[in-house]
């Protein structure tokens, strides 16, 4: 159990640095946007940003192979009709089946 | 009496509990993800304490995967911190969209609350819209935080027990959760052009720099640019921006 409590100081320094820059990205958004007045196109861009970020997050992995793309399309179809936990579980079952077939 | 109790607004305690409940499906995606990260960290030579401190202080999954991968390759410390920053730059965009919700919150309280802002936290918070309370925010955030901490440390303790998570489809939970969150942002066919632009840009950037965080920035910028262009066109006609369909 002693190895579990071993602390590597060089890794800890990286963790502290990573924690600081990550926290700055988290508080930076509201801080910056409160100091800038937005026109209609900037507002439209900000409104579209959440969906665009989610699309960008999933697109490379979801389209990496046919089985995953089909399972992703299946999740999109059921996402608004069933609770999220059901959609996620169905998606995982679908991807396992499709990966064994395709 | 009973009608009175129905009109009483939710107490902070109820709001916290509601946040924790809404967090459960997200946890189903985060816990296997955290366990996988922990087992990879063990292979990279991190102790459970190293991993626990990283999850407790950084608390940003994708960037932790990148950091663990770079540590495994023996990358210099500053480059690892730089990579963490790049992966998390998207937080600027997420936080900017939450600004109206945090306008009345004192800086110190907002600084603490925003520490808990992850992709999942942000999506659930935005879905609450005007009804978002700090208690709900912490209900989601603290639940996800504890689940993330526990699953990553457990994964490091278990080491390489999960040899091939893809065989169980567990890697797909991440995709499925984000697709469900995305469905919540569907506002009719007007949502499609920015999303298609984002997908195209993300795929292009990912092909050029696989494993890097650039596809997220590229997708966000492309989607935002298309929306800005469309918003300006509608603004000329009616003075009512594309925000009208939101």
From TrEMBL, chain A:
Keyword list, A-Z: Membrane, Transmembrane, Transmembrane helix
Highest rank taxon of the organism: Bacteria
Residue spans crossing the bilayer: 6-24, 44-63, 69-98
One Pfam family in the UniProt entry: AzlD
Record protein name field: Branched-chain amino acid ABC transporter
Source species: Azospirillum thiophilum
Lineage of producing organism: Bacteria, Pseudomonadati, Pseudomonadota, Alphaproteobacteria, Rhodospirillales
